[in-house]
Amino acid sequence: MLKPYHHTPIKEAGTDEAGRGCLAGPVTAAAVILQKGFKNEILTDSKQLSHTKRDLLRPIIESDCAAYAVSHVFPDEIDDINILNASILAMHKALSQLKTVPRFIVVDGNRFKPFQDIPHECIIKGDGKYLNIAAASVLAKTYRDAYMEELHKEYPVYNWKKNKGYPTKEHREAIRKYGITKYHRKSFRLLPDQLELGLKL
């Protein structure tokens, strides 16, 4: 079972993002402050959970936490500032929307920029170690998946309902056949032979 917190049991925010490696759609981050004493035997890194378990956990996290927030950063901004900066920006935006100001921030991964004057620590694979980061990973993933399922209705040929914008063979073949949309990240290598393809909008 994951540890409930890293530094302090009171007002410690875990933050994580989803969609960093996608070719289309936003990068989405969540920040979560859990209630003291929160326990859950299923909750772990969202990548280790089934779609069903993530959807089961989302309302539990939302109802049992002290505070949570989710934020998207969209492709135009990703292309403008790069995906690393966009991921950090999404986490900052989520943290800024928390109704409770955290005393400490734990971040999944190894890159972050200071947020306000709040101390933080980056933790490699933190979403598999601490409940608050795992909770953030589940919210980021479920909110982003739901967003991509809505975009799928507008552009079904890319099958974002299934691949969520990740670089699957099917997604790349649809890009090759139909070109790209306003939801694609133009700064990403969308196809291996992209420079020769002359992708159309």
UniProtKB/TrEMBL annotation:
SUPFAM superfamilies for the chain: Ribonuclease H-like
Cofactor binding description: Manganese or magnesium. Binds 1 divalent metal ion per monomer in the absence of substrate. May bind a second metal ion after substrate binding.
Cofactor(s) in the UniProt record: Mn(2+); Mg(2+)
Sites where the protein binds a divalent metal cation: D16, E17, D108
Gene3D superfamilies xrefs: Ribonuclease H-like superfamily/Ribonuclease H
GO annotation terms (biological process): DNA replication, removal of RNA primer; mismatch repair
Superkingdom of source: Bacteria
Record's GO cellular component terms: cytoplasm; ribonuclease H2 complex
CDD domains found in the cross-reference section: RNase_HII_bacteria_HII_like
A Pfam match: RNase_HII
EC top class, as a word: hydrolase
The UniProt record lists the keyword Disulfide bond: no
EC number: 3.1.26.4
Keyword hit for Nuclease: yes
Entries under PROSITE patterns matching the protein: RNASE_H_2
Keywords for the protein's UniProt record, in alphabetical order: Cytoplasm, Endonuclease, Hydrolase, Manganese, Metal-binding, Nuclease
Main location: cytoplasm
RNase H type-2 domain mapped to chain residues: 10-200
Catalytic reaction annotation: Endonucleolytic cleavage to 5'-phosphomonoester
GO molecular function, a single term: manganese ion binding
Subcellular locations according to the entry: Cytoplasm
NCBIfam families: PRK00015.1-3 (NF000595)
HAMAP family, per database record: RNase_HII_B (MF_00052_B)
Functional note: Endonuclease that specifically degrades the RNA of RNA-DNA hybrids.
Family: Belongs to the RNase HII family.
This protein's name: Ribonuclease HII
